[in-house]
């Protein structure tokens, strides 16, 4: 299985790289927890311009729910260094839930801004961002260290350069397993996950349609019109 | 009064959002299965709630309305929300916490779950109580919507879940419970000021939104041509409804994400859902299957969408839409003249 970077994480990476470009003196790290194949994704990040990469990989990490994943990621972030800014995707590929960002924020004890649509300004000590809710756009000033969850509105991610790809191929990927991370094996992976999947089923079918085909179509249209007439906008 | 269910109220400019009433409806059902349980709704707000809002919460299923006030609750200040909810949860010790899967709920619930060291299941489409253990059974689509997973948090409390708006129904009767009201004003002491709101611009809400409309007219790839979208809009506006879409139409930018119905779009539950040129992929069905009445139009009589419909019209979407629109206009004219 080819391992790819989650689409929204590309936007998060792009955000980090742009901040580095305009603010100098910034290092960008990419960190992921996953199977060995995740190396590929980290190399792609490296090819885009990331300075250093970390892979949290251990069979003990398997089966982690968002709580255990976030706890392990936060623990690793603390042992790798001191970060001003942590970026995650707003959610992983379709259907996922966007829980990891806010949970990592809490385990790191930093404020979180979710659904970030624009980076307005980065200053010494704080960042101004725009985020979007159902009812409007908010601009916040957030003190470092903080965590942002990034939407695709933020930017267009760059493509890796050829020379970047070459460098990335040889680059060293820092590896952490459970022991090196000094994590308690009972606090990671499935063992460290409060939730359990107890049953898997298939979605059920629930209706019996009256189907109008061919010569009956006209009748069907009449039936539909009868239902819809109740909703016709009444002019006052 | 301990083993209670706590619902986090979704307030929009200090008005209670419909999704909160849906959660209260569900909470009553869960509460019946939990002995000696009660339902508390927690509202974070700058000033107190209006009398009408409090009454609405009571009659929608809340035994207790807990209002927490602080000036920082005007907008979603993550730090203040988290610290105050953490305190309230530690005092109330709820067995279950539910919130709407909105931008606020989807952010604060995982944060609160991490702070309380418990699990969370997002976007649940079903909630129930396990007869044996009394734990919350949470159902949600998984693996791209192809299966439905039931998830449980066997040993941790509180048990937390978010639910998308329009998944459950509010009560159809007025609940008469204890009607307890508690107002706690939280001071800023001991809460770190690490984020400050610089500005807020409300978005134009004049456009009919797919989640709130009584009628949703959705277009799929089968409408073939971008110009045919006009038929969809025309029918929607005749019916005072909203325009919806399957994902491919949003991907190719024919319509905004606001219109997308389905697993990675919005969940809708209108009185009438019309699907024109939509095949009925599980991911689309996930977003519309709880609609009261479903009408679909598809040229393929074996299209999966028909299995989820009340009326199915087999034929060309453009032609059928034109005919429906014309007949509706006629009957509208008749009504006016009557
Ligand atoms: C993780 C994941 C998440 C997803 N999330 C969503 C989501 O949120 N929402 C969503 O919609 N999809 C989602 N999808 C995509 C989904 O799987 C389908 O690809 C999509 O719903 C198909 O859209 P459609 O029905 O418009 O197109 P198609 O499947 O191409 O169907 C077109 C239909 O139009 C009919 N047709 C063609 N010509 C005519 C005509 N002239 N008149 C009448 N009928 C005609 C055809 O018979 C066919 O049934 C998701 C997929 C994945 C993997
Ligand atoms: N195993 C992981 N390793 C690194 N980051 C992750 C992992 N899982 C989730 N994330 C981050 O959290 C975001 C939201 O993921 P999710 O909560 O699964 O929807 C992703 O876009 C990633 O940035």
Largest sheet of chain B: 7 strands, parallel
Give the names of the bound compounds: flavin-adenine dinucleotide, adenosine monophosphate
Give the biggest beta sheet of chain A.
Answer: 5 strands, mixed
Low-confidence stretches of chain B: none
**Structural class designation of chain B:** alpha/beta
Shape of chain B: globular
Fraction in beta strands of chain B: 25-35%
Number of strands of chain B: 18
**What is the strand content of chain A?**
25-35%
Strand order of the largest sheet of chain B: 7-11-6-1-4-5-12
Query: How far apart, in Å, are the first and last alpha carbons of chain B?
Result: 59 Å
Low-confidence stretches of chain A: none
Order of helices and strands of chain A: HEHEHEHEEEEHEEEH
Task: Note the quaternary state here.
Answer: heterodimer
Please give the radius of gyration of chain A in angstroms: 24 Å
Spatial order of the strands in the main sheet of chain A? 3-7-4-5-6
Q: Span between N and C termini of chain A?
A: 61 Å
How many separate helices of chain B? 8
Q: Structural class of chain A, please?
A: alpha/beta
The biggest chain-chain interface is: A-B, 73 and 95 residues
Keywords:
heterodimer, A: 236 residues, alpha/beta, 5-stranded mixed sheet, 3-stranded parallel sheet, 10 strands, globular, B: 338 residues, 7-stranded parallel sheet, 5-stranded parallel sheet, binds adenosine monophosphate
Task: Describe the overall structure.
Chain A is built from six helices and ten strands. Chain A has 236 residues and is an alpha/beta fold. A five-stranded mixed beta sheet of chain A has the order 3-7-4-5-6. A three-stranded parallel beta sheet of chain A has the order 1-2-8, with helices on both faces. In chain A, helix 2 packs across helix 5 and helix 3 (66-80) packs across helix 4 (100-108). The longest helix of chain A has 17 residues, at 7-23. Chain A is globular and about 70 Å long. Chain B is 27% helix and 27% strand. Chain B contains eight helices and 18 strands. Chain B has a seven-stranded parallel beta sheet with strand order 7-11-6-1-4-5-12, sandwiched between helices. Chain B has a five-stranded parallel beta sheet with strand order 15-14-16-17-18. A three-stranded antiparallel beta sheet of chain B has the order 8-9-10. Chain B starts with a strand and ends with a helix. The model of chain B has no long low-confidence stretch (mean pLDDT 93). The structure holds flavin-adenine dinucleotide and adenosine monophosphate. Adenosine monophosphate (AMP) binds at residues 6, 8-9, 12, 32-34, 66, 69, 73, 88-89, 91-92, 96-101 of chain A. Flavin-adenine dinucleotide (FAD) is lined by residues 144-145, 220-222, 224, 246-248, 260-265, 277-279, 281, 283-284, 287, 297-300, 303, 316-317 of chain B.
């Amino acid at each position: 299985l080819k391992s790819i970077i989650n689409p929204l994480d590309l936007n998060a990476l792009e955000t980090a790289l742009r901040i580095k470009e305009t603010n100098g003196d910034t290092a960008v790290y990419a960190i992921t927890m996953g199977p060995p194949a995740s190396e590929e994704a980290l190399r792609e990040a490296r090819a885009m311009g990331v300075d250093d990469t970390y892979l949290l990989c251990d069979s003990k990490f398997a089966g982690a729910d968002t709580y255990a994943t976030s706890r392990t990621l936060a623990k690793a972030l603390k042992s790798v260094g001191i970060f001003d800014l942590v970026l995650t995707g707003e959610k992983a590929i379709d259907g996922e839930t966007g829980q990891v960002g806010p949970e990592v924020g809490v385990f790191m004890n930093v404020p979180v801004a979710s659904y970030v649509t624009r980076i307005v300004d980065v200053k010494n000590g704080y960042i101004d961002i725009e985020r979007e809710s159902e009812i409007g756009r908010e601009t916040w000033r957030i003190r470092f260290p903080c965590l942002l969850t990034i939407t695709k509105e933020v930017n267009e991610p760059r493509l890796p350069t050829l020379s970047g790809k070459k460098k990335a191929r040889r680059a060293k990927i820092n590896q952490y397993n459970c022991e090196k991370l000094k994590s308690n094996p009972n606090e990671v992976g499935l063992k460290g996950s409060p939730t359990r999947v107890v049953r898997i089923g298939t979605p059920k079918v629930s209706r019996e349609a009256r189907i109008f085909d061919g010569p009956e179509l006209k009748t069907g249209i009449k039936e539909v019109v009868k239902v819809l007439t109740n909703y016709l906008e009444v002019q006052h | 009064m301990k083993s209670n269910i706590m619902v986090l109220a979704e307030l929009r400019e200090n008005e209670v959002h419909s999704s909160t009433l849906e959660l209260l409806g569900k909470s009553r059902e869960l509460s019946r299965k939990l002995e000696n349980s009660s339902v508390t709704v927690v509202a974070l707000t700058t000033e107190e709630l209006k009398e009408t809002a409090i009454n609405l919460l009571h009659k929608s299923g809340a035994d207790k309305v807990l209002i927490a006030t602080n000036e920082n609750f005007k907008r979603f200040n993550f730090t203040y929300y988290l610290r105050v909810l953490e305190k309230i949860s530690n005092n109330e010790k709820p067995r279950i916490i539910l919130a709407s899967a909105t931008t606020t709920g989807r952010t604060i619930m995982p944060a609160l779950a991490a702070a309380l060291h418990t699990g969370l299941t997002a976007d649940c489409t079903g909630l129930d109580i396990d007869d044996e253990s009394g734990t919350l059974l949470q159902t949600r689509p998984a693996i791209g919507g192809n299966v439905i997973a039931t998830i449980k948090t066997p040993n941790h409390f509180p048990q937390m879940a978010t639910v998308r708006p329009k998944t459950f129904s509010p009560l159809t009767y007025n609940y008469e419970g204890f009607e307890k009201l508690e107002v706690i004003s939280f001071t800023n002491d001991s809460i770190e000021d690490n984020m400050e709101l610089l500005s807020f611009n409300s978005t134009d809400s004049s456009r009919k939104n797919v989640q709130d409309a009584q009628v949703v007219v959705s277009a799929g790839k089968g409408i073939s041509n971008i110009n045919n979208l006009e038929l969809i809009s025309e029918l929607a506006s005749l019916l005072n409804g909203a325009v919806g879409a399957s994902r491919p139409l949003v991907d190719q930018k024919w319509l905004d994400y606001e219109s997308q119905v389905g697993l990675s779009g919005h969940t809708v539950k209108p009185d009438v859902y019309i699907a024109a040129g939509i095949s009925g992929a599980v991911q689309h069905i996930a977003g519309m299957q709880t609609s009261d009445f479903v009408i679909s139009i598809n040229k393929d009589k074996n299209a999966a969408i028909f299995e989820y419909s009340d009326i199915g019209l087999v034929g060309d979407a453009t032609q059928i839409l034109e005919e429906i629109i014309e007949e509706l206009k006629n009957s509208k004219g008749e009504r006016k003249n009557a």
